[in-house]
Amino acid sequence: MADVPKSKFNAFWAIVIALLIIAGVWAFFGDAFSGSEVPAEEPQPPSTEWTTAPEGGVEVDLPETPMRAAEPEAQQQESTNASGTE
């Protein structure tokens, strides 16, 4: 290799590196350029019905308490008490 000019040697390695980069990009993005796009599966909305308890589950007896809207002042006071500032 002593008789090969340095500029040709540098050009050879530049071409090798460029080909490696192109091969890496092609391997990584190959599916994106193939044109065969797989249709995305539509997400199913969550069920609005309650499910049954699993076998061997723990029995829980929750009180039948009606839900009601909290007053805005009470919510604000609870949030300041929770953070430790008054």
TrEMBL record:
Keywords: Membrane, Transmembrane, Transmembrane helix. It comes from Altererythrobacter lutimaris. The keyword Transmembrane helix applies. It comes from the Bacteria. Residues 35-86 are annotated as: Disordered. The lineage of its organism: Bacteria, Pseudomonadati, Pseudomonadota, Alphaproteobacteria, Sphingomonadales. Residues 74-86 have a biased composition (Polar residues). This is Uncharacterized protein. The keyword Transmembrane applies. The chain crosses the membrane at residues 12-29.
